[in-house]
Amino acid sequence: MSLDPSDWNETRALGRTMVDDILSYLQTMRDRPVWTSVPADAKARLSEPVPRAGAPLAEVYAAFKRDVLPYPTGNIHPRFWGWVMGTGTTTGVLAELLAAGMNPHLAGYDQSAAIIERQVLDWLKELVGFPADASGVLVSGGTAANIEGLMAARVAKAGFDVRETGVHGGPPLTVYGSVETHSWINTACESMGMGRRAFRAIAVDAAYRIDVNACRARIAADIAAGERPFAVVGNAGTVGTGAVDDLIALRALADDFGLWLHIDGAFGALAAWSDSRALVAGQETADSLAFDLHKWGYVPYEAGVILTRDPGAQLATYQPGRAAKPAYLQSGNGGISVDTTYFADRGQQLSRGFRALKVWMSMKEQGVDRLGAAIQKNIDQAHRLGDLVAAHPDLELLAAVSLNIVCFRYAPSGTAEKTLDSLNAAILIALQSRGIAVPSQTVLQGRFAIRVCITNHRSEDHDFDFLVAAVVAIGAEMAATAPFNARSS
Ligand SMILES: Cc1ncc(COP(=O)(O)O)c(C=O)c1O
Q: Who contacts 391 (Cβ-Cβ below 8 Å, separation ≥6)?
């Protein structure tokens, strides 16, 4: 007995229904609230004992349609702009089905899927200006990609055999980046055994870009104190405001001290596909560049990328070397295990899925020019929203718009500063829970900001008009009622 269907025709018919249903769901998503909390009855039904005995697939699918499908994060909706969440493409959805059907194992092997991943990586290198012989690998996302970059940096620049001895084999290692660097840096420093102390958070200027001189001074001071700097991290699009560090200056700084330059371009790197590519100029000079395709590449989760300029450096981070490779992972001179591209030697994952297919199919179907135009549209929309906010007497722009992020608050004149944080937090919750729109939040110079990050190919200008009107209406409604009216000056 296998686990295959006993009636293939029945499964085929149900599969067609599923494809129909999910495409209709995507086609009509604008008509639904952006987000709805999972109701108590659905939650209760989703808490079940281990299903020892099976049930017909049609029944399982009915449960999915009733209790799972209606309650997504909402990032497929045109008015979802929270955190940095991509929208996905219908082609990506279908590609996931096909990839799962083939179910290839992407450690390497002589197979089409490995050729597709290599092809996708070649396109990506070209699009961000990396050399053709650079190394790369697809990973789960930005955090994983950035960690891979820092791992390669450490092996290349630690000055001792950190793979053999661990961090105890030499002086304390240090890495530099701005205070605006995403929290992946802490995850990296902790999981790499260096501890969070290894990260030297450098101040930013008024535009939230790293203070390069302060960084230089800190590196010099650390060297004098016996620490071992190994990498500088540049941001091509900070998570807070979308600021792009002076990447050219950071390259020069890294060179002056013989350090590795890693650039986190989680979403910003993709600006290179658009007419605004000058905004991320310099990222092509990085020793390693991390970015996501599930953010501004619009493909469904998960798809991150790490590119490493020196192909040897990425291999040196993981490749055990022929002698040390376990017998069960050795390649033959022919047959399936012949080494085409052994992706498992380029990162932490051995078992790897066919992430590349959704990227390959989306890029081929849309064409990169069209994807770049969608990215440019998001940048234009951010500037337009920034202008709307700046022109509105009751709204305040809290950071200059550089890429695709707009941070603002409702701040009618006369409202006490101390009230504004809680008032705007309440506005944000109302926007989300009324299903109007999903921005997220941040704090800029101590002030609570409603943060709109646009990596959404479905958003139209009228969606942002709607947002502005909703913020002002909800703000006025709340400001007139307790507790906010009582706290106003
Ligand atoms: C600038 C930046 N770096 C890294 C990350 C982490 O990426 P991921 O969530 O894909 O792990 C994010 C996520 O938003 C980000 O904005």
A: none
Establish whether residue 84 lines the binding site of ligand 1, counting it when its CB lies within 6 angstroms of any ligand atom: yes
486: amino acid identity, one letter: A
Residues 403/291, Cβ–Cβ less than 8 Å: no
- Note whether 399 and 241 are within 8 A (CB): yes
Q: Which amino acid is at 181?
A: T
> Do 74 and 34 contact (CB within 8 A), yes or no?
yes
Q: Where are the alpha helices (DSSP H) in 368-454?
A: 368-391, 417-433
Q: State the SS3 of 117-174.
A: HHHHHHHHHHHHCCCCCCEEEEECCHHHHHHHHHHHHHHHHCCCCHHHHHHHHCCCEE
Say if CB 261 and CB 234 are below 8 A apart: yes
Compute how many other C-beta atoms are within 10 angstroms of the C-beta atom of residue 49.
Answer: 5
Give the number of other Cβ atoms within 10 Å of residue 192's Cβ.
18
pTM: 0.97
Query: Which structure tokens are listed for 421?
Result: 């944080």
Best of 184, 210, 298 for a ligand 1 pocket test (most atoms within 8 Å of beta carbon) = 184
pLDDT tens digits, one per residue of 226-265: 999 999 999 999 999 999 999 999 999 999 999 999 999 9
Q: At what angle do helices 247-257 and 212-224 cross, to 10 degrees?
A: 20
Q: How far apart are CA 124 and CA 23, in angstroms?
A: 28
pLDDT digits (tens, 9 = 90+) for 20-33: 999 999 999 999 99
C-alpha to C-alpha distance for 115 and 434, rounded to whole angstroms: 46
Q: Atom 7 in ligand 1: which residue has the minimum CA distance?
A: 142
The answer to which of 71-75, 184-188, 321-325 has the lowest mean pLDDT is 321-325
Q: Are strands 304-308 and 288-292 parallel, antiparallel or unpaired?
A: antiparallel
Distance 134 CA to ligand 1 centre (A): 23
Using the mean position of ligand 1's atoms as its centre, give its distance from the Cα of residue 266 in Å: 5
Name the residue of 182, 186, 208, 348 whose CB sits within 8 Å of the most ligand 1 atoms, as the mutation to test its pocket. Answer: 182
What letter does residue 74 receive in the DSSP assignment? S
Q: Is 318 left (phi over 0), alpha (psi -120 to 50) or beta?
A: alpha
Burial of 171 (0-12, 13-18, 19+ CB in 10 A): middle
Domains and CATH numbers, the chain: 104-366 (3.40.640.10), 369-487 (3.90.1150.170)
What sign results for the dihedral spanned by CA atoms 136, 138, 139, 144? positive
Cβ–ligand 1 distance for 141 under 6 Å, the answer: yes
